[in-house]
Amino acid sequence: MLNVSEVNAERSPEPLAESATVRFSEMAIAPYIKERLSGARFTVPTPVQAAAIPLALEGKDVLATAQTGTGKTLAFLIPVIEKLLKDKTPGIARLEDYLDRRLFHFNALRILILDEADRMLDMGFLPAIKRIVSILPKERQTMCFSATMEGDMTRIVKDYLRNAVRLSFGSTSKPSENVRIQAFEVAADRKQEMLQRLLTKEKGKCLVFARTKRGTERMAESLNRKGFSASMIHGDRSQSQRTTALTGFQQGRFRVLVANQLRSARSGGKFHPPRWPNRPQWRPRRSVHPFRQGAAL
């Protein structure tokens, strides 16, 4: 039977205070990782990072829920990179692709990470998860990071985690307090006009979500014609094209990034309504840096 020890922290998704005793530079991680974190100006962990990283480094199973945008990805990446540096174990990605093509055996797999687990379940990936996990070694470390604990999430926890330490931070049913959410009811033929008005009104960078790849291309082309510097990213773009778009957006060469993938920016707009109407806040949560203010429109 699953044994999950609880650690609840009903705190806002802000970084630990500057006077906090735990900093990345003081964690039991390799100098290489510390240097990379320092170079990226990451000095103080968020609450979920401060709680999850030491436990993961000890090899414990971890079940953590916190608002999207609070640093959960880094909370598992740091322990994984630390173990890879020590063990020189090759990284693994796109497990199902490797499985289908019989290009890899998972006998030596040591860590299983289920990131954005609630969204994977919403999108119908439970059968794929079951298939992959069924061939993985039973003796492994499993970490599950999710914004919510609903529906089949309980089943995932019961089946795949052992003696997991449960970490919970803040409310997962509402977006970060740094996000200002607005909704506009607009006729289909007026969306471009409304988007351009909002871009004129709002300040800073903007991430716009489109439903289709072709729609992403049309929108970026239209914005550029109207004088808004825009780049685009979708599944058919090459890696170099994606890197150019993301780097240009990050460095300010493009003010707008149009995407049908999930990325982070200071403010975000949804050109099409969400496919999951019961989760309208998911992309708004992702549309703002955890320590800055922004708008989701």
- How many DSSP helices? 11
Low-confidence stretches: 9-20, 262-283
The value of Rg in angstroms is: 20 Å
Structural class: alpha/beta
User: Order of SSEs, N→C?
Assistant: EHHEHHEHHEHEEHEHEHEEHE
User: Which strands sit side by side, in order, in the main sheet?
Assistant: 1-5-2-4-3
Look up the CATH topology of the largest domain.
Rossmann fold
Q: Count all strands and give the number.
A: 11
Quick one: CATH superfamily of the largest domain?
A: P-loop containing nucleotide triphosphate hydrolases
Distance between the termini: 44 Å
Strand content: 15-25%
Instruction: Write down the overall mean pLDDT.
Output: 76
Largest sheet, in brief, is:
5 strands, parallel
Assign a percent range to the helix content: 25-40%
Overall geometry comes to globular
Question: For the record, what CATH class of the largest domain applies?
Answer: Alpha Beta
Q: Mind telling me which CATH architecture of the largest domain this is?
A: 3-Layer(aba) Sandwich
Structurally, how many domains make up the residues?
2
